[in-house]
């Protein structure tokens, strides 16, 4: 068998293993990477070079930052404040938690966002006798949509932003915030219309209003008991803001996002060295995720090295010479695949393929080739909403719900998710079309 | 679809009482009533508000266990509206403020009565983590004679609060699992529990786990006190369930079973050395006398409310 066939089979086996969920995906990519290096398809030094440390360090820095803020109870404060501001009004609960989820997930990873929001929305809605699911679905969908807005919001964007050096934090926001906002509004309108018998004010019902008010008193009590000193709050938020500004100033400072993130995390640990114990904080990092990314880079590096990606790029170029159609193929195939499999390996493979594609003689002169990255990002991030296993945030949210006695079935998820995903992908396609033609 | 109001309210009351204690629940109920009146979009004249309060009162009555002090406050509000037919939302809110203030005063008086138990060094057992017990710890911090406290540890989230408060108050404390108290019984002089109510069967309703502990303490002649102001007595004559019950589906190594969970324990008044109330510390006999005296007044109020509600 040729090297191309063997490496392709290894990647296919990893992909199949991830879908089957028999083994953890980190173990699967480690097996794949070990075979690749062990069998000499990639030398050890080449394997090390293929690991994109920009991505790994950016992830590490953001994990440290987020865990620091979590340990300082800043997120508990935010969630409780939201609950109190909603005044127990189902419409406000729906809108405020959904918008907050989208905003938070633009700057935090989606799993962290749902870990902050999901338990409280379940406690709040259940406590005042509202059905939990419409509110929880909204949080799940908005976490995936909001995550698409920035370079750091979702792993596919982190991969794209780290590996395509011409893209900056500002350019992600410039190109992706519009479709994200429009899709978020569309999703909110769709859910509100579909669940109008639930998401409606209760001000005319004294008994229900009383229960909501009683629940709010409990939230006020929990907020009072948090005891976050003002200095801790101000300093931690200032550092987080500094990191975001650091991302924006890339064109001036030329500091890669990874450097900004890890510096911010270090500064956070320095300023709060009394509150944050590194021996407690650092083990909380999702090391399996970082190892998964590293192993994946080795597998993708081998595919590039032996020429698998050239073959795919060549085949892809042969599909059409119409670049707009190519953009639509990218966005829809990314969305469909992301709905059924983990979008990270897919995006990791697609990045070098698309680099080849836009440099091919057929498309090299096209001034709009940069749109492939937005098509890939929108398709991969929004497609994650398509099924229960489409994104980590979906899996985690459903697990939180289950632990609280709320079962969400696979079919039930798809029934709710399909119209939402279709709408957001159609909006994204229209947006890409407008960018392409105007 | 929205679930029925009664199970939601019942679960909410039980959860909040379990988290913060009954006195905190009473205060939260008064604050929540004010917010509800502010936010309510319907009519807010005396007649309309009375109609809404009747409905809420009936819901509260149907909850198990009955949160007596919460219902008493609601009844006081209804009686106030019956007597003040011109009263509107602002007057009602003002009356709620008065009830709130009374509740604060009762708490202070009750805590003062509890402090009188500590005129000499004593070894005290605490089990409840209610706001009242935590307020008592705050006051003991500045008392001339401080007890040595043993905390009967329950679930971490419950016990942690007391440990933090004791540490902050600078009171010497030791933590023992609630099921291992037998090993320190010879050290203990007294135990104080927070209580939800005293019912018509001369039973005190307390947090889960208190019942077994109190029986044990009685065997070893350790004095047992329950903090229970008189407005928390349940004067209803009919028999109702003394705890909220949930049946949870569980699974163990492929074996499916049902676990019954009860919100409260029930202890005979005879097992209690004294009821620490707002007026004084009552012996069981004095408690019975006080209960009987106030029960008639309560039944009159309830009769008035039922009659007018029917109209």
Question: Which helices and strands, and how do they pair?
Answer:
The complex is a heterodimer of chains A (438) and B (311).
Chain A lengths: L2 H18 L4 H14 L5 H7 L2 H19 L2 H12 L4 H18 L2 H18 L4 H16 L7 H9 L5 H26 L11 H19 L5 H19 L1 H4 L3 H15 L6 H4 L5 H20 L1 H12 L3 H18 L2 H17 L11 H13 L8 H12 L6 H28 L1
Chain B lengths: L4 H16 L1 H18 L6 H17 L5 H16 L5 H27 L7 E4 L4 H11 L6 E6 L2 H14 L3 E5 L12 E9 L4 E4 L3 H10 L3 E5 L17 E8 L2 E8 L2 E4 L5 E3 L4 E2 L1 H27 L1
Parallel strand pairs in B: 1-2, 1-4, 2-3, 4-6, 6-10
Antiparallel strand pairs in B: 4-5, 5-9, 7-8, 10-11
Explain this structure to me?
The complex is a heterodimer of chains A (438) and B (311). Chain A is mainly α and 438 residues long. Chain A has helices at residues 3-20, 25-38, 44-50, 53-71, 74-85, 90-107, 110-127, 132-147, 155-163, 169-194, 206-224, 230-248, 250-253, 257-271, 278-281, 287-306, 308-319, 323-340, 343-359, 371-383, 392-403, 410-437. Chain A is built from 22 helices and no strands. The longest helix of chain A has 28 residues, at 410-437. The relative contact order of chain A is 0.15. Chain B is built from nine helices and eleven strands. Chain B is 50% helix and 19% strand. In chain B, helix 5 packs across helix 6 (131-141) and helix 6 (131-141) runs parallel beside helix 7 (156-169). In chain B, a hairpin with a 4-residue loop joins strand 10 (274-276) and strand 11 (281-282). Chain B has two domains: 5-107 and 295-310, no CATH class; 110-294, Translation initiation factor eif-2b, domain 2 (Rossmann fold), CATH 3.40.50. With 311 residues, chain B is α/β, with parallel strands linked by helices. Chain B has helices at 5-20, 22-39, 46-62, 68-83, 89-115, 131-141, 156-169, 210-219, 284-310; strands at 123-126, 148-153, 173-177, 190-198, 203-206, 223-227, 245-252, 255-262, 265-268, 274-276, 281-282. The model of chain B has no long low-confidence stretch (mean pLDDT 91).
């Amino acid at each position: 068998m040729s090297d191309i066939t063997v490496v392709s089979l290894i990647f296919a086996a990893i992909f199949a293993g991830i879908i089957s969920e028999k083994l953890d995906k980190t173990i699967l990519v480690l097996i794949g990477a070990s075979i690749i290096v062990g069998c000499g398809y990639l030398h050890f030094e080449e394997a090390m070079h293929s690991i994109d440390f920009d991505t790994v360090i950016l992830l590490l820095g953001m994990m440290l930052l987020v865990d620091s803020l979590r340990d300082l109870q800043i997120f508990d404060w935010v969630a409780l404040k939201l609950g109190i501001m909603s005044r127990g009004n189902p419409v406000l609960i729906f809108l405020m938690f959904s918008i907050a989820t989208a905003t938070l997930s633009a700057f935090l990873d989606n799993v962290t966002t749902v870990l902050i929001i999901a338990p409280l929305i379940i406690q709040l809605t259940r406590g005042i006798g509202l059905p939990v699911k419409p509110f929880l679905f909204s949080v799940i969908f908005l976490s995936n949509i909001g995550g698409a807005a920035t370079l750091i919001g979702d792993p596919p964007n982190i991969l794209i932003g780290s590996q395509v050096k011409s893209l900056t934090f500002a350019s992600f926001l410039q190109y992706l915030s519009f479709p994200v906002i429009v899709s978020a509004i569309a999703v909110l309108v769709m859910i509100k219309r579909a669940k109008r018998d639930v998401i409606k004010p209760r001000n005319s019902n004294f008994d229900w209003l009383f229960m909501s008010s009683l629940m709010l008193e409990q939230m006020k009590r929990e907020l009072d008991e948090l005891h976050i000193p003002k200095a801790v709050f101000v300093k931690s938020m200032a550092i987080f803001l500094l990191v975001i500004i650091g991302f924006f100033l890339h064109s001036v400072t030329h500091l890669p996002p990874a450097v900004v993130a890890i510096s911010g995390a270090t500064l956070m640990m320095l300023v709060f060295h009394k509150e944050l114990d590194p021996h407690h904080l650092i083990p909380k990092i999702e090391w399996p995720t970082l190892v998964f990314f590293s192993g994946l880079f080795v597998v993708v590096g081998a595919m590039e090295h032996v020429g698998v990606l050239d073959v795919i790029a060549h085949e892809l170029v042969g599909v059409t010479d119409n670049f707009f159609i190519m953009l639509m193929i990218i966005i829809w195939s990314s969305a469909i695949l992301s709905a059924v499999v983990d979008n990270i390996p897919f995006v990791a493979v697609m990045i070098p393929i698309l680099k080849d594609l836009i440099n091919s003689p057929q498309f090299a002169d096209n001034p709009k080739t940069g749109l492939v990255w937005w098509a890939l990002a929108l398709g991969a991030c929004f497609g994650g909403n398509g099924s229960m296993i489409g994104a980590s945030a979906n899996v985690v949210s459903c697990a939180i719900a289950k632990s609280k006695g709320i079962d969400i079935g696979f079919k039930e998820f798809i029934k709710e998710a399909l119209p939402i995903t279709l709408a957001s992908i159609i909006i994204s396609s229209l947006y890409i079309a407008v960018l392409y033609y105007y | 679809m929205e679930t029925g109001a009664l199970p939601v309210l019942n679960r909410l009351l039980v959860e909040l009482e379990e988290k913060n204690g009954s006195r905190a629940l009473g205060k939260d109920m008064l604050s929540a009533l004010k917010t509800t009146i502010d936010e309510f979009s319907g009519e807010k004249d005396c007649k309309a508000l009375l109609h809404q309060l009747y409905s809420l009162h009936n819901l509260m009555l149907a909850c198990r266990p009955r949160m007596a002090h919460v219902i008493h406050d609601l009844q006081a509000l209804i009686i106030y509206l019956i007597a003040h037919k011109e009263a509107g939302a602002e007057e009602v809110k003002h009356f709620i403020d008065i009830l709130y203030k009374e509740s604060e005063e009762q708490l202070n008086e009750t805590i003062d009565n509890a402090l009188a138990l500590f005129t000499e060094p004593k070894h005290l057992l605490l089990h409840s983590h209610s706001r009242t017990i935590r307020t008592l710890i705050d006051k003991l911090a500045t008392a001339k004679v401080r007890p040595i406290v043993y905390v009967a540890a329950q679930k971490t989230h419950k016990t942690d609060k007391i440990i933090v408060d004791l540490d902050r108050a600078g009171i010497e404390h030791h933590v023992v699992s609630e099921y291992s108290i037998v090993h320190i019984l010879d050290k203990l002089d007294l135990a104080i529990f927070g209580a939800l109510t005293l019912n018509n069967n001369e039973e005190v309703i307390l947090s889960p786990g208190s019942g077994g502990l109190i029986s044990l303490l009685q065997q070893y002649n350790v004095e047992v006190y329950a903090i229970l102001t008189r407005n928390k007595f349940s004067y209803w004559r009919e028999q109702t369930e003394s705890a909220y019950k949930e049946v949870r589906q569980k699974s163990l190594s492929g074996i499916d079973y049902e676990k019954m969970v009860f919100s409260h324990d029930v202890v005979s008044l005879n097992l209690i050395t004294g009821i620490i109330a707002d007026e004084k510390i009552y012996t069981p006999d004095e408690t019975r006398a006080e209960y009987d005296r106030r029960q008639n007044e309560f039944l009159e109020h309830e009769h008035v409310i039922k009659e007018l509600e029917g109209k």
